Amino acid sequence: MPFTLRPFRRFPLHCIVTYNVGLFQGKGTIWNLSCTGWRLSGDLPMRPGETVTLPNEQRIKVSEAVVRWSRGQEFAVGNVVIEPHTRSVTSLRQTTGAGTSGDCPVSDNQPMFLRFNIAFVLSFVCLATPAWPDYEAGEGAYQRGDYATALRELRPLAEQGNHSAQFFLGVCYANGYGVPKNLELALQWYRLSSDQGNWLAQNDLGVMYQNGDGVLQDYEEAARLYKLGADKGYMVAQSNLAAMYYKGRGVRQDVREAFRLETLAAEQNFALAQRMLGIMYMVGTGIPQDYVQAHKWLNLSTAQGDTDAGTLRDELAKKMTLDQIAEAQKLAREWTPKGK
């Protein structure tokens, strides 16, 4: 059943959500949804003022929102930037700035009507530190490289079934962080997390299947797992799946689909995807050759420390005119990540 969201009329909706907080992922329920905000009850508390995003591949995407108040595990979240998907918009008066690529800032005098099905699952990402002490201590220790403390804080949560903590243990066992490297245990924890819908775990599990790390190499399973994260907008999974389509591994070879996925990841400022997209433009594989676009994307990747992209850019520049280089540099300077 379709319904319409209006800026100040909240729809009395209850639906399950999943969300990331730093490295971790939680679950909750969202209700009283409108264009200007929503109310959430979740297992990873957030503090007022923290930034939230709500990317949903199905109907609606909120690129930025702010926690207004919190009471225990209940939070009020106000939308700052909201993006309509193609099939979502029925009426829209939109004001966009440079680099927003269709972002629609929500304001009091800006009517917006978004239509989508009542049966859906929303996902959102909180780009801030969780308020739950166990997570704060575990993530903080991980970021400091104190893996022993991180494991001590998060292992009990993983054993209780928390898929974010399970993903964390998978990372530790896969890389030997604080524990002896053990691919069998890494697979175990990744699978437990992946089965609960954690797209970070799904991606890393896909890498293990692609490379045959601790498991029989299976390109089809790797591609399937990458697609789960790619469909949710996870840039690493998008880039990994692009490589599968480019080479025809686990999927039918489709260079155009590889280009589409790589573009989605590059637009989120993923350096590896930017380098690969630059190469595709440079070579003209499945798309018209475009040295200006190639230089732009290689330059953006180089700015993030990708030395290989820098080498390719410098070699490409020898084939370009000064006007082409100037245009590419201008495009790179003016570019901003999608949604920023």
Structural commentary:
The protein has 340 residues and is an alpha+beta fold. It has two domains: 2-126, no CATH class; 171-187 and 204-334, Tetratricopeptide repeat domain (Serine Threonine Protein Phosphatase 5, Tetratricopeptide repeat, Alpha Horseshoe), CATH 1.25.40.10. The protein contains twelve helices and eleven strands. The chain has helices spanning 133-144, 147-159, 163-175, 183-194, 199-211, 219-230, 235-247, 255-266, 271-283, 291-303, 307-317, 322-334, and strands at residues 2-5, 15-21, 24-34, 37-42, 51-54, 60-71, 74-84, 89-92, 104-105, 112-117, 122-126. Strands 2-3-4-7-6-5-11 form a seven-stranded mixed β-barrel. The two termini are 33 Å apart.
Question: What's the quick description here?
Answer:
This protein is an alpha+beta fold and 340 residues long. The protein is built from 12 helices and 11 strands.
